[in-house]
Design a protein that fits this description.
By secondary structure, this protein is mainly α. Helix content is 44%, strand content 4%. The protein has a two-stranded antiparallel ribbon with strand order 1-2. Helix 1 runs antiparallel to helix 2. The longest helix is centred in the middle third of the chain and has 13 residues.
Length: 95
């Protein structure tokens, strides 16, 4: 019996080879409005709503995708930031 690995291993190229990594510069107001207009003209209401929520609430992407309808709506109306329960925020780990 041989102790060596009979299958030669090949080096896999990293998926982000040659790309910029790390923190990106913040969007300028002009960039935000350009994106909003672009989404409006294409009729992408869902994407526009998600973008507006992300920008206006300053949520991180990972927090934004975890949102549920109950987090932003109370019955038939949209919740404001003052409608949130601080105890729920602490339990969720966002404070």
């Amino acid at each position: 019996m041989t102790t060596g690995n009979p299958i030669p291993s090949r080096q896999r190229e990293p998926w982000n080879e040659g790309r910029l990594t790390g923190q990106k510069r913040p969007l300028k107001p002009k960039d935000v409005w350009t994106i909003r207009v672009h989404l409006q003209l294409e009729g992408r209401k869902r994407d526009l709503a998600m973008f507006n929520l992300a920008v206006d609430s300053k949520l991180r992407g990972c927090d934004l995708v975890r949102l549920r309808v109950d987090d932003v709506c109370a019955g038939d109306r949209v919740r404001g930031s003052s409608d949130r329960d601080p105890e729920e925020d602490r339990a969720a780990g966002s404070i």
